[in-house]
Amino acid sequence: MAIDFFAWALTMPIKRQIRRRTEKRYGIDGNWAHGSGVARQAKFAIYAPELAKEANMRSSRDRIARGAIINSTLATIFYLPIPVGIGFILISLLMWAGFERLSYSYELKAEQILNEKIKREEVTTNA
User: Fold this and answer.
1) What contacts 24+ positions apart, CB below 8 Å, involve 72-81?
2) pLDDT in tens, 43-93
3) Closest C-alpha among 73, 64, 17, 114 to residue 122
4) What is the pTM of this model?
5) How far is 74 from 1, CA to CA, in rounded Å?
């Protein structure tokens, strides 16, 4: 838990940038900083449980990659030669950033498609 907390704190500024760029790329207002991620997860759980499972799996992968950043840093401090350790830290950061972008892209697009499906079903039900 401590490693995940430190990794979360370290990556939060980068995560904000990744998510803003991803939103801009897709032309979607993810509104992620205002808790919409929680609403998105709840919507997935209620309307599309398989989406919720997939999003959870992707989130776990992101946390593991985030932990690798801290582990690489600790290994650099205590065991590895500095140039090798810095290489591992950079690789870990790039790996995490890639996973974060892919996971958030998936969440945004899945929510967009789910919203469209819900609208179609409401129109059909009300017709």
Assistant:
1) none
2) 999 999 999 999 999 999 999 999 999 999 999 999 999 999 999 999 999
3) 114
4) 0.86
5) 16
**How many Å apart are CA 51 and CA 8, to the nearest integer?**
24
**Cα–Cα distance list, 85 to 21, 73, 76, 93, 99 (Å):** 29, 7, 4, 12, 21
Residue 6 CB partners (closer than 8 Å, separation 6+): 70
Q: Count CB-CB contacts under 10 A for residue 35.
A: 9
**pLDDT surpasses 60 at 25:** yes
Question: Which residue type, as a one-letter code, is found at position 127?
Answer: A
Question: What b-and-e string marks burial along 13-23, b requiring 16 or more CB atoms within 10 Å of the CB?
Answer: eebeebbeebb
